Amino acid sequence: MIIKSSEFVVSNSDVAKCPNSKLPEYAFIGRSNVGKSSLINMLTARKSLAKTSGRPGKTQLINHFLINKEWHLVDLPGYGYARVSKSIKKTFQKFITQYFEHREQMLCAFVLIDSRHNPQPIDLEFMQWLGEHGIPFCIIFTKADKLKPNALTRNIEVYKEKMLEIWVEMPVYFVTSSTNDLGREEVLKYIENLNNQFISN
Hints:
By secondary structure, this protein is of the alpha/beta class. Helix content is about 35%, strand content about 20%. It has helices at about 35-45, 85-100, 120-130, 150-165, 185-200; strands spanning about 5-10, 25-30, 60-65, 70-75, 105-115, 135-140, 175. It is globular and about 45 Å long. The two termini are about 20 Å apart. Mean pLDDT is about 90; it is low at about 50-60.
């Protein structure tokens, strides 16, 4: 897939105010500081489409971007470790849950995982929630450039083993780096294939 255009549409905390569109959309979510904004900018080939910050928890709204005037990329607030109050975290949780429960045009959630770390309970619990609610998702391992190849392979194998303690099979996953565009073509190709299936149905 060639990204010809990418534009900001709307930010809000009310799912009812998300774009009234039947276009397919893809949600990107993960723990705070997982590299989500950098990944979105890498995928869209835009340096500042999504705002990056050294401060975890910067994204605090549902952000819709229109890509190629054909599909929406949705940037969701990160979970865990955000420097916000408990009441705000509860608000995040509420509208994130509502988003996944009500946006029928959401074809896939991309759950971002920092490839440098061991499996974190908060990530595993979130993916289990997605599975229990029948919400399709993939895993995107980020920051692959921060590890040597052997360490990266080992970490992903550890993650597979942990996932297979609960799941029948490992979900589709991608290994990415926003620094060198690793995984960009694979993620966009996956989205393109889902878009084509969506149109044919």
